[in-house]
Amino acid sequence: MGKTIRFGIIGCGLMGKEFASAAARWCHLTVQAARPEIVAVCDVNEASQKWFTDNFDTIQFTTTDYKELLKREDVEAVYCALPHLLHEQVYCDIIRAKKHLLGEKPFGIDQKANQKILEAIAQNPEVVVRCASEYPYFPACQELIRWVKNDKLGRIIEVKAGFNHASDLDIHKPINWKRTVRMNGEYGCLGDLGIHAEHVPFRLGWIPKNVYAVLSDIVTERPDGKGGMAACDTYDNGTMICQCADKDDNEFALYIETKRLEPGATSNWYLEVTGMDASVRFYSDDPNAFHYLYSEGKNQAWSRVNIGTKPLIPTITGDIFEFGFTDAILQMWAAFILEVEGKETAFGCFTPEETRISHALHTAALKSYQEKRAVELDLTPLPADSHNL
Ligand SMILES: NC(=O)c1ccc[n+]([C@@H]2O[C@H](COP(=O)([O-])OP(=O)(O)OC[C@H]3O[C@@H](n4cnc5c(N)ncnc54)[C@H](O)[C@@H]3O)[C@@H](O)[C@H]2O)c1
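A: This is the predicted complex of the input protein with nicotinamide-adenine-dinucleotide.
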């Protein structure tokens, strides 16, 4: 039996289950990576702990108070998937308890909360902290990244990235915490979906200098699930146009769209990069396909190649078979564990520093929309004394 890392899960909802399921099929990986063992779970709603205790006999401890979980010496690392309002307090407490953390986006409900989390990280450098973002781990997306890194595109013309849903078009869908400013944050859909779209562009060095944003709150109330209606006060859709520069300092436009009202979309994550020599795109709607185009002559044609299962972190699955969402989750988890172990990964998880850029972008986007103008990103580094706060 190889090494294990003992995990606690805080937040036993949709994403808590995804992690637990990925941990349960760790044997799928053929790489040497410590196995996550779930030893403790926490949720304020006791009923949501049951699925975990029914399926994992490694769980020694359940609680409704996350501070009790953090006191346990057998918990070495935590996956935390809670509403955005709670990120600042709970992430800071996890980090100060010296547990490694994979936290969820947006990593703080706003920029101030994000800064507090980054300060806690700065004070506890021995703890490995990352933010969840799984879509870049689709093999076809990794192929896109290789094309960019290998300079096959020539001068960049434009980059378009997005994450779109359609389910909110159902106006009878009851409200949940993600549709309220109090719990989800003022960023609305940008905070909920933005990091997904930003991971690859940021990692490739495309950091926005400024942003012009158009945000829309189209569905302003929803059924409250108790027979009445409740205010749905978050932005449903957000489009950001940013000015970026490539490694040779040539400017190009980066479009980022995050939408809950995009007719026909079901978690459609996409990235398209056009260049003077070649262009590439990946859509999670066509999850096994990598699309490319050579910019030759007057007319061009897109080609589509089926990549299959050629993941970054090797698995038992034959490469002729399809790759899916839960495989991407497993890849992200393997990348996180390798980072905790201090091992090399070709594409690591979204970093705390990248969450800082994301918050600078979303904060500037809110200002841009309010003032109807392009706004520069404030990327001032944290104060030098933040280690000593
Ligand atoms: N990576 C992804 O693809 C992805 C997808 C969806 C959501 N998310 C993120 O995951 C996080 C959680 O979202 P979700 O969809 O799993 O939400 P969810 O509502 O399904 O689950 C949240 C859980 O937290 C519990 N909870 C609330 N307050 C708590 C507290 N004080 N202590 C302990 N438990 C508490 C709730 O009872 C609930 O079970 C959010 O940050 C969200 O942005 C990520």
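The domain at 136-323 is CATH 3.30.360.10 (Dihydrodipicolinate Reductase; domain 2). The CA atoms of residues 8 and 40 lie 5 Å apart.
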